[in-house]
């Protein structure tokens, strides 16, 4: 382990809080090798057999852990991997290479890659999935041959900070949250899977650290600061002690707030404000429920689709949606249909790169162009609807026609299921994200069609101010409190009110203490946020005077700048001057 402290690594602050622990490095090892000919076939065969046996033992161990913590479904993928290890056709191709004098590495890779290329060239999603499995298995055996065994999150036994290139949904499925002190990744942004997963699980995270991460060796002590986007490598004792004091304070504050978990969200003067959770998978529910989520305000279903080469089928989707609806036991669950494109790539669709992906073929645009894919999701949602209070939400709606078209597909699938005798809930609210300024401006018209609006402030701010938050050069223009943003939110609420529709906010702004009185004052009655923000925001709502919030919001709309708005909020609510830790 390297000893002295080195300069801290910086990245994107993806999930708040502090965490310290030894690095658990998931970065893939360098698997390059030399191809050699004229080798002793028997000796190379023996090396290969040893690597196969070690790989088999690895996979069996991971499978048992996955089965124990997550159930049979998650273990099935590892059964497929075990079958590949003993596949006779693959073995015959490897044997031919060995008999031709190749070293075991070259024989293995040559044979596997022939099958991988063949599977990938066929337009069959099942075989493409087999290609991905085979690549996984090939890498594992190769790693053993090279004496650089792969690590898996399922191998985590001691508290640690996870260091990875990125975390795929299948990685996080194996993660034991109680042992993870923090997450640091080389790539990714605020909306990457790793970031959202970390926020959902309440783990401090810094993402997008870059290549520098590859220099971290296993066991190196790391201090992750998820608020500042900083990772100290081998921190000084004093720095660790200060962080521990801060963590203790945060834990005490959390314990105090836990007493509020069962309280209904309602302002001091009686206005109902529902406090709901944003989730990315059913695995996020326990933390959301612990924090007293009164519903799920945003289930980002794209995480079922990302980080894999194939699309989830209707059954897989149905099971995930049903698990969330049942987990929430009758409380409202807003499930958002597929929102890919922009910064969320969908490898299974093989879409060509675009000049302006954020203004391009994404979310509902893609779904309406690919009804074959969209209908599968809609059917899964409709089938799951009988298990709770499902609300379906369409993302990135820009025009009224898009909403109508999406709703028409939903209605068609409903009619089809009913004709097939499949039960579907009688009433399902169907709403939309308001994250494109045009939708906010036209909210009166949209309110005649949609049952509710949920404001996606992350995108709304970016599109309204034409500023990408991840671009350092223009980050100062990404201003949640800009009066123009407040005006768009106010306009959305006013349009909704003409038809008695409810308005929520499910972007990051919902969890921001400075924005909260403004949102409530503008007419928002549901706030959906990552689980760790729920308790502090509940305390804030319980103490809030909605009348005073309305006066503040009306005043804010007359101001010129985001800075003036912030000053007005702080002067109306001086207790907000202090940032609470970990919120
Ligand atoms: C919630 C939102 O959607 P996402 O962050 O998933 O784009 C948003 O844009 O605010
Ligand atoms: Mg969005």
TrEMBL record:
Entry cofactors: Mg(2+)
Record domain PEP-utilising enzyme C-terminal: where: 263-544
Domain (PEP-utilising enzyme mobile): residue spans on this chain: 157-229
Cellular component GO terms held in the UniProt record: cytoplasm
EC number: 2.7.3.9
PROSITE patterns: PEP_ENZYMES_PHOS_SITE (PS00370)
Localization per Swiss-Prot or TrEMBL: Cytoplasm
Binding site for phosphoenolpyruvate: 300, 336, 458-459, 469
Primary enzyme class: transferase
Gene Ontology biological process: phosphoenolpyruvate-dependent sugar phosphotransferase system
Gene3D superfamilies: Phosphoenolpyruvate-binding domains, Phosphohistidine domain, PtsI, HPr-binding domain
Recorded superkingdom: Bacteria
A Gene Ontology molecular function term of the record: kinase activity
Residue ranges of domain Phosphotransferase system enzyme I N-terminal in the record: 10-130
Residues forming the catalytic site: 193, 506
Function field: General (non sugar-specific) component of the phosphoenolpyruvate-dependent sugar phosphotransferase system (sugar PTS). This major carbohydrate active-transport system catalyzes the phosphorylation of incoming sugar substrates concomitantly with their translocation across the cell membrane. Enzyme I transfers the phosphoryl group from phosphoenolpyruvate (PEP) to the phosphoryl carrier protein (HPr).
Protein family (similarity comment): Belongs to the PEP-utilizing enzyme family.
The name this protein goes by in its record: Phosphoenolpyruvate-protein phosphotransferase
Species, as recorded: Deinococcus phoenicis
